[in-house]
Amino acid sequence: MAFTLIELLIVIAVIAMLLGILVPISHTAREQTRAVMCGANLKQVCLALTTYDQENETLPYGFDDLTYVTTAPPGGYVGEASRDKMGWWWFHLLYEALGKNFGQQTVVWCPSRCVRDLGPKANVLCGNYAVNRAICKDAPGTTGGEFVGKPLGLYQIRSSAETLLITDSGYSLISWRGATNAAGQPFENTQREGAFYVPGLAINNQRLLEGAISPSCERDAIDGRHPNRSVNVGFTDGHTARVEADDLFVEENDDSYSNLSPLWLPK
Could you list the residue range(s) of the whole structural domain that residue 152 is in? Predict the structure, then answer.
């Protein structure tokens, strides 16, 4: 039996309506799945960090190019020599615990990573996870400032359940300076200034206008990485959570800073 034109149009309209409902649901489900996978990755990395601390009574350096200056890290140097410092990063010191692989789709890569340009696209330093530099400090002599020195041990952090250790990030090192509206707070890596941010943080709109965030990272920085501009974070007591990016914001009020401690600065 043949269908009339009206019947065919009704069927097409119904199919279009169903697609209009199902496609966004499917997209949301995929985003939620990636966010859950990211949280699982972060949980494994947190476990590796705490295990390292148990074995060494300190957390790893965030970056070190002095102690290992003549020795390549396991798996080789990462990044681009013209834009990234060549040395050992925090994840190199967790090589065994993280599966001896820093390639794509491994535990150190966020499943929702969104970096467009071909330069940092295959660079594990960009668009994945970062340790808090107030805890995993840089080796003495690498740079200057407040984030250089011996890394802290977990025993030194009293408010461990409230102190941020690792989070979704535009670059592999992060601190409160990348989450503040304070003027004159430069990004910490001078060779790759355009890749240091908390994904989805509201102030990133202004940072982008100021040229402090690379256009290739715009979607990740502005729209965020996970649903509702949320980020996965790990704390020094080993627990992980998904929070709104703006929960990590550090506000300047009359030359004083709020929300710094113990979230960003350990006590």
Answer: 5-258
